[in-house]
Amino acid sequence: MARRSLSANLLHFLSVFALFHTLALSKTLKRDVKALNEIKSSLGWRVVYAWVGDDPCGGDGLQPWSGVTCSTQGDYRVVTELEVYAVSIVGPFPTAVTNLLDLTRLNLKCFCKIRDFHNNKLTGPIPPQIGRLKRLKILNLRWNKLQDSIPPEIGELKSLTHLYLSFNNFKGEIPRELANLPELRYLYLQENRFIGRIPAELGTLQNLRHLDVGNNHLVGTIRELIRIEGCFPALRNLYLNNNYLTGGVPAQLANLTNLEILHLSSNKMTGVIPVGLAHIPKLTYLYLDHNQFTGRIPEAFYRHPFLKEMYIEGSSFKPGVNPIGMHKVFEVSDADFVV
């Protein structure tokens, strides 16, 4: 047994040594070195100070650049993750990023939640070349000052699971091409200047769990959003608050049986609340406040086993309708979604 254990330990040591030897001998792909050095020259003094040496993956006794993760592919190292946040980077979106063709994670967001405190201030549009990053799974650009329309080429990122574009100045319509992202789970578009209707095609995303389009200038009705049969099969959280949505709450919304959070606050919606909504099995937070709803809240809501909050202030419900819960502002943290 002792000999076997010694052999196993020796094999483990040799395999680890071989791995580090390979990493030490591997060269970083020139394409990635060139791209990162272009990014370095465009992002400002804070990044320049932190990124030491000519090779972003490290070497010659130097560590990889902060926020840069590399992996070995054959005889070369490639950049697979780039995370630069909370260092007040400024200027246009660095187009050289789109030359890092092996990226799986791109994070250029601010790490804080106060808009003018150590925020990144990337400006201008997302370049259409973003569609080149075919392996990208997580794209996080929130809390910048990016603007213009979202390029339709973003629909070419077939591996994308997390898309964070909130707290920017994007305008125009939400592109239908987002429905071409089969792996997308989390879509954050809140706090921008989007107009028009929410594309019903988003309902075809079989894996979408979280959709937040709150605090924009969107119009239309929920009925239009859920018109595709079998839509939003995995959706848990739906934030439509602070827009200009009209019409009523359609009974068909109860078909979204995985819903846990439904946020309709501060729109221009009318009509009565259908009793079917109370039969969504895991519904936990329901925000109906500051609309023009009428009638009574069905008794079934008050018997719901999971409903913790139902906020109804600022509508025209009949006397005797009572809220549920403490009515605190509900906010889901980033940590709940990052994989």
TrEMBL record:
The primary location reported for this protein is: membrane
Q: Which UniProt keywords apply?
A: Cell membrane, Leucine-rich repeat, Membrane, Repeat, Signal, Transmembrane, Transmembrane helix
One GO cellular component term noted in the UniProt record for this chain: plasma membrane
| SUPFAM superfamilies for this protein | L domain-like
Query: Which Pfam families does this one have?
Result: LRR_1, LRR_8, LRRNT_2
Q: Which residues form the signal peptide?
A: 1-26
Name of the molecule in the record? Leucine-rich repeat-containing N-terminal plant-type domain-containing protein
Question: What domain of life does the native source organism fall in?
Answer: Eukaryota
The places in or outside the cell where this protein is found are:
Cell membrane
In this protein, which residues make up the domain named Leucine-rich repeat-containing N-terminal plant-type? Answer: 30-71
